[in-house]
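Reopening this ticket.

The earlier resolution said the output was attached, but the attachment link was broken on my side. Pasting everything inline this time so it's all in one place.
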Amino acid sequence: MRIALVIFRSDPSRGGAERYTCDLAAALLARGHSVRVLCSDVGEDGLHVRLTCAAVSRTEQYRRFLDALDGHLAENAYDIVHAMLPVRQCDVYHPHAGLAVDAVERKHLQRTTLAGKILAGAANRLNAKRRWFAKIETQLMSSGHPPVVLSLSDYVKRPIQKYYPLAKVQTLFNAVDLEKFTPGGSNDVRARLGIAAGEVVMLMIAQDFARKGLAATIAALAKLPEPRPWLVVVSRQPAGDFADLARRHGVADRVIFAGATTTPADFYRAADFFVLPTHHDPCSLVVLEALAMGVPVISTVYNGACEIMTDGLHGRVLPDPDDSIALADAMRQLADTKLRAPMQSACLALRPALSFATHVTRLEAIYQSYRPADV
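Inline output:
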């Protein structure tokens, strides 16, 4: 099949949808499909097509990206157009961050105070780019030929059915390249970070510290008795105020902001458990990667990836991302080697269910089912 994958940016170091799109392009190409990644930047693998959208504001960049995409699709034929963001035309719509219309209402819920929720809610509704995303998404789903919507989890499926009750929805759980994310083997991450053998390391890989719960994680770390675990944060996002927060909580000496990485598997191998008390994640890929590496996870009911987990067996699934006391208790449990060891074994048993190869086979079947009738 001739397949176009549409993503605004295609830098895999950004994680999430960007990394997924690059991995998917490589997997589909390996299976004999003709693949192009339509994006605003250009990768190094020869698959990318740059859609020029230079502009001062992010909203105008998005508008120009849509126009450039329409022009490209008018001149180039594809059997399947698979979009990771709202566009004017596609066969498969794959909203990795959740629905755009839902984001307009939900984004402010990340704030912890009533005043903060009110102010953030007002700002959210005035966010021009977010409103444009929602507008284009609504037009797409209301068109005469709406796409099939790929739901990353039941957590995502519920708002899809709420806002678009007539939508054709297929649940396609995120997945992991098991060859790339294999437990065992040696690496020098602990040595590079100055962490002695035998010390407990909890890992967070995240690109949006506010949404992913870094503040609660730091607060919970401060509640633990000495010797505290290390918290290693892998991200391209600068530490900024969160480094100051760690200092105010008196745990700056146990928090390492390690920067971005192109080899996340090395960090999983260096970790004893993974922490992500997120306020919203349709299906966090890093959680699935951690599980596949045999690393128990602490996350929340607001993460679709936790649907594959059993609380207490593969880690902890918490009901409130802002409850630092409950989070500290979960950390205390997973820092205990005797409690953690059976969890590690249970996580490894999940590996077959997390296979990226199975995911791609399922996606190919969806492509075949929803190809335009005239192709």
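Reporter confirms the inline version is readable. The domain at 2-175+355-369 is CATH 3.40.50.2000 (Rossmann fold). The mean pLDDT is 91.
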